[in-house]
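ingest -> validate -> predict -> emit
validate: passed (alphabet ok, no gaps, 209 aa)
predict: started
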Amino acid sequence: MKKIWFALVGMMLAMSASAAQFTDGQQYVTIQKPVTGEPQVMEFFSFFCPHCYEFEHVWHVSDAVKKNLPANTKVTKYHVEFLGGEMGKTLTQAWAVAMALGVEDKVTAPIFDGIQKTQTITDPASLKATFVKAAGIKPEDYDAAWNSFVVKSLVAQQEKAAADVDLRGVPAMFVNGKYMVNNGGLDTSSMDNYVQQYANVVKFLLTQK
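emit:
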């Protein structure tokens, strides 16, 4: 019985110590103007951002965060258009198409690779071809989605969300429209430590009012 008690005490102390390590201004930042009505967890990225590529495909931070979240936590991923010039805007609309058609997981890696590794995505036509090949989307269905009211609304939604939190750079993750994870304030002693702490900070912030 004593062993069980000491084990429970140890777990409680470990949890307290973990929470105590998360400090406003260090591992996270409270944004000046909290935004109500936003998804519980918002991630902003750009296909043109090298750090976003590492965040997604090298470190797998997004996957780690999702696995660590309580059930039914709403997670939304938005593309930003302030990188890449006109193609940045095109990719924001393409991401809206992916959201509308529910193929985000199928096109994320191929688009990142086509932009940053193979440089095979250079215009709207090659971007469309990537959707057709990677997600099995018919060209006419892609065109219909591209010109739809739903996609136009999702583009506006992405732009508004970035403006509401006064987004300055990517990758960035916000929690409850009030807190932003401070990428530079996390444990960088190893990739595993960084990823795990990132996921723990997001989970911790979900409990904050």
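The longest strand covers residues 41-45.
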